[in-house]
From TrEMBL:
Organism: Serendipita vermifera MAFF 305830
SUPFAM superfamilies: Cytochrome P450 (SSF48264)
Residues that hold heme according to the record: 707
Keyword terms, alphabetized: Heme, Iron, Membrane, Metal-binding, Monooxygenase, Oxidoreductase, Transmembrane, Transmembrane helix
Official protein name in the record: Cytochrome P450
Cofactor: heme
GO molecular function terms attached to this record: heme binding; iron ion binding; monooxygenase activity; oxidoreductase activity, acting on paired donors, with incorporation or reduction of molecular oxygen
PROSITE patterns named in the record: CYTOCHROME_P450
Compositionally biased intervals (Low complexity): 393-413
Pathway involvement of the protein, from the record: Secondary metabolite biosynthesis
Signal peptide bounds: none
Membrane-traversing stretches: 6-24, 36-59
UniProt record similarity statement: Belongs to the cytochrome P450 family.
Region of interest called Disordered, as start-end residue ranges on this chain: 381-413
Amino acid sequence: MHLITAAAAACILIIPSIVILRRYRRAVAMISDFPGLRLIVSPMCSLGLVLPSLPMPLYTYPGFSFPSVLKHEGLFKHFKCDTVSLCGLLDGRAILYTCDVPFLTRMASHVGSTVFPKPIEEYGVLGYFGDNVVIAEGANWRRQRKVTAPAFSSKVFERLWVDMADITREMIQQENWDRRTEDFVPPPSPQFTPEGEYIPAEGEIYFPNVVDITLRMALAAIARTGFGIDFEWRTGESFTNTCQSFGESFYSTTLRVIYTIAHVTLKLILPTSVHTLLLHSLRRDPKPAQSSANGLVGRLHLLAVNIVHGPSQLPQEKMHLQEALHLVAKESTLKLAMASLPSWISKLPIRRLHRMNMAFECLQQELGRMVTQRRKELMNPAEPLSPAPSMNSSESGDSFYSQSSSKSSPVLSDNSDLLSNLVRSAVQTEKAGGVTLTEEEIVGNAYIYLLAGHETTAHSLAWTLALLAAYPEQQEKAYQEIIEGDPSEDTIIRDYPKFRFLLACYYETLRLFPPVQQIPKIAAEDTQIVIERTNEEGEDAFNTFPEDVVDFPRATKTPTLHVTRASISGHRTRPSLSAIKVGGLPLRADSSFGVPSLPCTPATTPPKEYVRLPGDPSTPTRSEFLGPMPFTQLSKDGQPVNAELPFVATDQTRVVIKKDTIIFISPPAVHYNPKYWKDPHQFNPERFLKPYHKGAFIPFGVGTRACLGRKFSEVESVCMLVHLLRNYSVHLPVRPGETVEDVRAQFSKASVRITLTPDKIPLIFRKRNQD
Ligand code: HEM
């Protein structure tokens, strides 16, 4: 018996251990061409999300947020390679982390995207509202992208500019920013509470966390320009008056639980026990008591049944569309987290969960209704276009836009919002006989605009304001640009190109704080690539890289040419030492914790270098450099299928990326890589006014799957900055004894949720003409 127990216990322990070990060894073998970390738990698995990071230099566990914390300085610098590997024993996934621009650019190109698609299984939860472009791959993605891309038309940006100007004005007016008096003089020394909170001087506008307003502004932009919904900055009477009923009452959910307990107690236990009690204890005629007890039970039971089965008799909970929009935007992280748990958990009678579910249901229904309506109108153009839905039902169809259009712009009454454009594009595709989007897919894509465009833009705007506050000389340049470009305070989208410096400030912020911290890809096949080793001293050699010159290997027939940075910048890059094989022998990477070896093919063919002569028509164009065959795919027996990779230069090596390897492109590491950015930690917007390495600026993703809403976000942010900084200067609450760098370190603290989220950005606004 003992023997059987021991054998069973051994099986329970040993078999899973063997499975785990085999999986781990397989994963390690897949990524053994790259130096990196071998861990107990990988930061990319569910357990890794909750574990705290352990200190360097041991790298025992770098923590889920390590890309945002370590940037380029962590693993990449340590291993002297711009692509590093990660594998956790417990999850056994083969992971590569890369900030190698040529590699990631090729990976995301048209050819590369089929070899390295997006691992869409990880994104399934984003399909809550319907299939959409973010969670699609292959032919489905191409169809989605083809129909959704035209929605971002110039009309939308025209409208966005007007909407953003209105939103900023409304905020200033409704938050009473103009209360400051003319003769205000800032106090000589700033005051703080004992807890360290800034005490604003009379007339100053202080936000303990400016994200509170930027989130609201970005939401208003998506609501108005995105969906054509009137969004009030402050919700007054009309907000409560125009509630609509959605979902099941919270109280009925709670009562359902109570009912289940009551049902068992009242229906099964109580009648029997009451009966017995009455019969045996009272020893009188039990009938009246029994019948009254049964009557009571019956009544209670009926009540419970009514409560549970007749929710219509209960007062319905109500939710306004604006509130739903706000809650969906706010609770999306929670909703996504709930998706990995059993579904009953999200139905627990917890108020927050209940309101979240209601909000999602409400928005889905409302978007669905809007799509059906607009589609009907577009399919039958004889019918007039419906007005944008209003938050205020008493407006009887005359939307906010048609009212405000007279004061600001005539474009607002023509359903030029993103959602209408999307429906229009779908209808046009359908009419042209193409494969279009279903109504559900349109709603799915609309939800993605909210998810992808809200927090990303709001956090970036907050950080832009904070950085301008930290660097007053840059703020002054921005201000000068605004008053030169916007003397009448009545700009239109045509003025947008005037604000180059503001856009540069926004770009520089996105470089320093890229909202999307990692972009995953998966290797669909065994694929051979060329990677470059980090040049130990040559960082600056690449900074003068001309804008129009790219360093892609040219995939032609013999001889294959290759552009190296060294040849262009006039430097010879020195081969990286430890990471490269010398004399045909694989070297071990410089690591004390068991980093795998780096087998490299010896450079048998001398490198041929190609110098792109700018302006010379006889030299190949950028697209020729990109070429059709950036990878060598390998057959099952490891032989090249398309033998196009011709040589290995001194600072490069060929490696094989095995099928099913997950590759994370790391925007923070690319943005802080000194190869591409001089003084990468410095806030220097001017760098974007000169030629810069475009391939190394990837906050909006890279290649064919790059962000569809990039311009939307740029126009929105620049417009908001124009209208805010024109009238207000922005400052940091610097405590006595603190430097600006200290404050910058504080507002740079962030956590990685769906996007990079600042912990807290306190800011002070002061009216300009009174400075
Ligand atoms: C600062 C603002 C923004 C940043 C940093 C940003 C970043 C990104 C990134 C990195 C991707 C690529 C993800 C991947 O390859 O897996 C992406 C895709 C996307 N973004 Fe944005 N985004 C921003 C704003 C917006 C806005 C305002 C919208 C819409 C209104 C939007 C809509 C989309 C869509 C639809 C995609 C999917 C494209 C595709 O898969 O083909 N984004 N975004």
